[in-house]
Amino acid sequence: MPRTFLLSLTVCTGLVSCQRTPAPPPPTAEVTTVPTHSHVFSAEITAADVAELLKSFTSKVSEDSAPNSNGEEKTINYLRDQMLRIGLQPGNGDSWFQTVPMIETITDPTSTPALHTADQSHPLTFGRDILLGTRTAQPTVKLHNSELVFVGYGVDAPEQQWNDYANQNWKGKTVVILINTPNFHNGNAKLASAKRMTYYGYWTYKFEEAARKGAAAALIVHDNMATTYHWDALQKYWSGPRYDLPNADDSESRLQVQGWISQQTAHQLFANAGLDLNKAYRDASKHGFKPISLKANWSVDLKSTITQKTSHNVIGVLPGSQQADEAVIYTTHWDHLDTQTDNISNNHTMIAGNAIGVTGILEIADAFTHQRPRPERSVVFLATAFKASDMPGSKYYVQHPSFPLDKIAGVINLDTMSVTNRTRDLTVIGFGSSQLEDILKPVAALQGRTLHGETSTQNDTYFRSDHINFAKAGVPALYIHRGESLRNNSTVTGGNNTNQNVAQQRYQPNNIDNQATWTLDGTVDDLQALYEVGRALTISGQWPNWHEGQPFKATRDRMMATKPTLMSNTAEQ
């Protein structure tokens, strides 16, 4: 049965309700064959529509979709054709595609770094003692006798009066950094509450901040508890190919060398300097910490295999009826990098990894094309390349956006959507970050749902999805996951991860029509909620911001200096 659209009057007070009418004819630019379906799509977001799109996607795109692969071509063409069927227009000028240049870097594990103290040299074994990489796109990078300096947690947070770098000159030096933030080890509320992973605690921030300070290299001390992953997981990640934008397409500063050292290596490094690593954790957690020389240098002749590649973002747009130069963005990633020989496992991973997100933005796009009155702001539907490896697709879009960043009201991310029954709640990843949650809250309430943060606040999930590149540029982003409390009073199996046994029963394309093992009611609720949030943004003239204390707020404040936030009424309801 088609689901009745929620009337978000608590969000769009005083605005006329939106009615659904037949979609306009498809555009003629870059015409392709419109896909045919025996299924008749509804004007509303329905479980039947979602199931049909999941079936068509998983049956037509059932292979690795790495850059330049046959799988990529099938995937992006599928998205283009579906966007054309829905009635969107090409979102990158006259093209549906945005070419993303990439640099693939594979570190040579035979590279031989060494520590130098006053009287001896200590070779380090790649993989066991140290993991290294470079973002320079150079096949050889050499560091010679770079001084090692301990900078605590490597945090510079002006809004929280915390600066571990103490305004020193870091040119040519290598900074040694603890992972996570001071609050993790001592409960310090100065930087964050409890043990929640924050932007300042995430490893990519550590490297980015060190580069901004002018350091030559940065080494993070691994910590199982503070990262929630073991050394062998890091070893696997850093031993494979890494993907980045060419320097010319990325405004970020870059280190010559970056990497991790093991706990054992760190203990020895500190001991050689007459220091105790455990005490260093405690000292670095105190306000007013100052950098400490480790009385050692290090050298490395880092070899890498560098390959230039390209991939593609897929962009569709529904132009706004009034403020067409302003936009709301829905995003997901289209890539799927698993090549399992077990078709059941592969289909499960594909659906959990990208098919639900792809299906979600298509269903929401279809809802917008039928909406009357039409959205006043433009709505962009962005399927990014290669989220699975360092997110170069979204990073490139942010550097080369189809709408200026100060014209984007907000970003809604559909990564890790779930196949689930209806729930009484809704998980917001990064809960408490932005005013977009103030719009979502009454929408969820109309569904009989409450909002809460992720179950494990130590996880770094918020920083591993495409919206984070928009956030770093100042644009507020909303990222949800399914609820945990089912309406039948049971708990969703597997917490934040789909149970593999259930997956083997459910996630085969042939089983999608079997309602005994496949349920999409909760998925429809999630998509409906995200549609309503975007709809409110397209017709309300609101410019949401980050909440106070968030590291991205200062950037948003600068870009919004001449615009009203118009969020006070929403926040009060």
Automatic annotation (TrEMBL):
Keyword match Ligase: no
Domain Peptidase M28: 313-494
Listed GO MF terms: aminopeptidase activity; metal ion binding; metalloexopeptidase activity
Keyword Nucleus in record: no
Entry keyword set: Aminopeptidase, Hydrolase, Metal-binding, Protease, Signal, Zinc
Cited InterPro entries: M28_fam (IPR045175), PA_dom_sf (IPR046450), Peptidase_M28 (IPR007484)
PROSITE patterns per UniProt: PROKAR_LIPOPROTEIN (PS51257)
Listed name of the protein: M28 family metallopeptidase
Organism encoding this protein: Xylella fastidiosa subsp. multiplex
